[in-house]
Design goal:
The chain is globular. Helix content is about 30%, strand content about 30%. Helix 1 packs across helix 2. It is of the alpha/beta class. The protein folds into 2 domains: about 50 residues, Spermidine synthase, tetramerisation domain (Spermidine Synthase, Chain: A, domain 2, Roll); about 230 residues, Rossmann fold. The longest helix is centred in the first third of the chain and has 15 residues. The chain has 10 helices and 12 strands. The strands form 2 sheets. Strands 8-7-6-9-10-12-11 form a 7-stranded mixed sheet, sandwiched between helices. It binds S-adenosylmethionine. The site of S-adenosylmethionine has 25 residues, from strand 4, strand 5, strand 6 and strand 7.
Length: about 325
């Protein structure tokens, strides 16, 4: 019998709702851990196809089997585009995988990771070794438990690269004030002269483009160069949005050969997703997305923040 027959059906499913009318189902073996912190609901589920997954407020965050795609896509274009990234900040990134990827860069002397919820980091330390690979304990690392916006606002430190890896701006969540013009102005202030900002910029689903387009438009209010890019994340079942914002550096200036040369000179270990060819593909986004960004007039402001009920949807 083919594997789609009745007998094959596993007993339990986790549905990652994109919106009330669309979801991506993951057959699960069970729930490994569940808790409610002061900030959000945290669970770790074990899926049949993708291994352990982190879920926050019922939103899928990352999965053991394919998180390398998301975290390599999030970290390396920015750090490879920078001439010499020594001091890096990660806002969010609770599972420690973005931090793991930053620490692969031999140029990095200091990495500050600021997450609002200690419970996520504790949970990652207990259950998600393959995500962080003990990155939290690297001597170059400083882990801060704070709201990322408040931290940057009160800091006088400057960074060569700042990576914003917070949850999507759910109206009920802790991150929606980290997608506004006022927040990006704070970030701009915390970047060195040729500093680079990279943000996870929500879904690029054709029916939920508000977040992705408004984030890029809001960045363009402050940064001279804004470079949207996308990567297909299997567990999200869609092209996920990212954006690089710079004060002049342009990731399109990097040839395939140039990227590969920098990777072999700077990065410890073998990357599985990102290289010179991938770099070219990332920054050549589909026509409908470029058009939607161009036509978007909404700017995310503190008094009119991007607050979504579902990823990308008001
Ligand atoms: N890969 C995920 C995605 O694409 O949605 C995000 C990764 S990570 C799990 C998201 C992290 O953002 C969580 O650990 C959460 O605690 C953190 N976070 C949310 N709001 C924050 C804030 N205001 N300041 C700092 N960290 C925040």
């Amino acid at each position: 019998m083919n594997t789609h027959g009745k007998k094959y059906m596993p007993v339990k499913w986790f549905y990652d709702y994109f919106n009330p009318c669309e979801a991506h189902g993951h057959a699960i073996k069970g729930t490994i851990f569940q808790t409610e912190s002061e900030i959000q609901e945290i669970s770790i589920i074990e899926t049949h196809n993708y291994g352990k997954c982190l879920i926050l407020d019922n939103e899928f965050q990352s999965a053991e089997r394919d998180e390398f795609i998301y975290h390599e896509a999030l970290v390396h274009p920015a750090l490879i585009s920078h001439p010499n990234p020594e001091c890096v900040a990660i806002i969010g990134g609770g599972e420690g995988a973005a931090l793991r990827e930053v620490l692969r860069h031999k140029t990095v002397k200091k990495a500050v990771m600021v997450d609002i919820d200690k419970a996520v980091i504790d949970c990652a330390r207990r259950f998600l070794d393959s995500f962080h690979e003990n990155a939290f304990d690297d001597p170059r690392v400083e882990v801060q438990i704070a709201d990322g916006r408040k931290y940057l606002e009160n800091s006088s430190e400057t960074f060569d690269t700042i990576i914003i890896d917070v949850t999507v701006p759910l109206e009920s969540g802790p991150s929606y004030l980290l997608f506004t013009k006022e927040f990006y102005a704070i970030v701009l202030d915390r970047l060195t002269d040729n500093g680079i900002l990279c943000v996870q910029a929500d879904t690029t689903s054709i029916i939920a483009l508000l977040s992705y387009t408004s984030i890029n438009k809001t960045l363009a209010q402050l940064f001279s160069g804004v470079y949207p890019y996308v990567a297909f994340i299997p567990t999200y079942a869609m092209l996920w949005g990212f954006s690089l914002a710079t004060k002049g550096l342009n990731p399109h200036d990097l040839s395939k050969e140039n990227v590969d040369k920098k990777i072999s000179a700077r990065i410890k270990g073998e990357l599985k997703f990102y290289d010179g060819i991938t770099h070219q593909a990332l920054f050549n986004i589909p026509k409908y997305l470029r058009k939607a960004i161009k036509e978007q007039t909404w700017i995310n402001r503190d008094d009119k923040p991007l607050k979504v009920k579902y990823p990308g949807m008001p």
